[in-house]
Amino acid sequence: MDNIGNVKITEILEEEKISYDNCHNFFEYKNFSKIKKLKSKINKEKLNDIDWKMAKEYADAVLKRCEQKKIDVISVYDSVYPDNLLALKNHPVIIYVRGNADILNQKAVAIIGTREPTPLGKKMSKRFGAKLGSDGYVIVSGLAIGCDSYGHMGALEVGASTIAWLAHGLDQPVYPKVNRELAEKIIDKGGALVSEYEPGIKLKPQNLVVRDAWQSGMSDGIIAVETGIKGGTLHAMNHAWDNKRPIGMLDIKSLIPNVSDARIPSGNREFIAKGTVSALASLESVNEFEKKLQKTRKKILSQNIKKFIPKDKFLKNSEINIEELF
What's the CA dihedral at 274, 265, 217, 151 to 10 degrees? Predict the structure, then answer.
């Protein structure tokens, strides 16, 4: 159906009181077609039981593909689905995971930034990943060249878990190509690759923007190590500001007092000067930022947002039973 996205689906799940225990009732077209928010669209688009059968067959094929490729299917019904994502008005109803799905709902921080960091930016991205990872945070990023990669590496160096959000189906070649080895290392070391896109979906530029939002969305806060005033990092930062998630940023001027402004990324200069981010330049400042992360997580967990009565188990690739589902 046209114009039926995550927000509309979430509204339907809540309005119709669809839970894991009764959702199978809606696998029948006669019940699906009675959903209030869909009635007019079903009539307008002249959808019928044949269309519904085709949709179910497509879902069947997706699940089989996930089983073949060892991809876990996680929905809002599952206890491992991130509370941080559920707290958002707009969140993916289903996410796909290669690797360790058990780390999805742990405390997390996103480490992101420009694809062309300074030597200091590279060094500090790794240090932030190692420091926060050592303190028990799952390090989230997008596997992009630059700050993202170094954040992942920092976590791996101290044996911490890290999650890479991808902008394509998990059966597709990992983008960017240069980080395919890093992606496999993330999985081998107990981390995970995550996507909201089912197998078969190829990379599109607009998917990268959505990916940037979900990095922020599943985290207690983000560290934008270095950034300009435009680009993908700003997508994640705007998402964090909109959802009241704390943002930290490398304060180069405090670390190198004599550095010229021309050598400091424009975003770092502007956002630190405005006071819209937490300036990070010392162990003490990072520890203070962690307190903000803890406060955010405590607030989200107190909201009791598990409204879909999650199951204790999720759809591991080895446990998918198509007949049971449909």
Answer: -130
Measure the N-to-C terminal CA separation of the chain; round to a whole number of Å. 20
CA–CA separation, 238 vs 247, rounded Å? Answer: 10
Dihedral Cα 56, 57, 61, 62, nearest 10 deg? -20
The pair of structure tokens assigned to 101 is 């799905």
φ, ψ of residue 96 to 5 degrees: the values are -115, 140
- Enter the tokens of residue 319: 């446990």
**Nearest in space to 15 (alpha carbons), one of 307, 314, 310:** 307
Helix axes 266-274, 232-242, angle to 10 degrees: 20
Q: Is there a contact between 122 and 153 (Cβ–Cβ < 8 Å)? A: no
Q: What is the pTM of this model?
A: 0.91
Q: What is the total residue count of the chain? A: 326
pLDDT in tens, 80-123: 999 999 999 899 999 999 999 999 999 999 999 999 999 999 99
Single-letter code of the amino acid located at 32:
F
